[in-house]
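Entry for flavin mononucleotide complex. Fields follow.
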Amino acid sequence: MKKSKEFLKSDWESIVNTDRSKGVPKPPVEKPYDKNKKIIPLPKIDEFKEITKTNLFDLILNRRSRRKYTNKPLSLKELSFLLWATQGVKKYVKDKEVVFRTVPSAGACHPFETYLIVFNVDGLEKGIYRYLSIEHKLILIKEGDFSKQTIEATLGQQFVGHSAVVFIWAAIPYRTEWKYTHESYKAIALDAGHICQNLYLASEALNCGTCAVAAYDQEKMDLLIGLDGQEEFVVYLAPVGKIQTPGNSF
Ligand SMILES: Cc1cc2nc3c(=O)[nH]c(=O)nc-3n(C[C@H](O)[C@H](O)[C@H](O)COP(=O)(O)O)c2cc1C
């Protein structure tokens, strides 16, 4: 497929005739879900302070991409903190369908849904889940051990399949296109970087490690998560696991 560096440049002035300006309703900030499926409530955010004691200087200093994880499981509270740090909702203005999160997003469009491939989290069956960020809950998509498929879909990157949980960020581009048309794609890629950086820092605070992953098979990854690959598709992912020695484990 031909890809052009031109998309990295700004062409902001040429945004005209947006769906927003035509009065097309704003797309929902969260994908609808089947309320009959298994929903798992997550520990509340006021419980996080006790598990995150490191100061910001140390977190930034020690941050690195970590690809070796121990067999120790993540607790549900730790997972809950990581979800909140990456896509947590601080304010939801329901009548305007606007959401403010712990990360910034161009035009507050927030085009991402978060999926998890869970391997080793206390209290969760192995399987694929989606984060319901407004409710701060998880919904089970499918149960099973998807380690082999995860490694295959990340082009043989073994460490991804040997983590405790893989964070997968899938974009629904229309949420940004509604406002910014052709300028959306750069903005979506930039948004993804903010999310993953919060995962790096939040993981460090828990004595966990993570590593950004952009090298994956698009079709296999979309298929594994159950996405159509057109209106919603995977853009970025990152495995997380407990590490041996703080600041020393690559
Ligand atoms: C956009 C992006 C994509 C990346 N993709 C991968 C990847 O697919 N596999 C991998 O092992 N590391 C990946 N990395 C991690 C980089 O290799 C890592 O950040 C770099 O080597 C610098 O190391 P540090 O993060 O420890 O400072 C990626 C990082 C970024 C920011």
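NOTE: The first strand starts at residue 39 and ends at 41.
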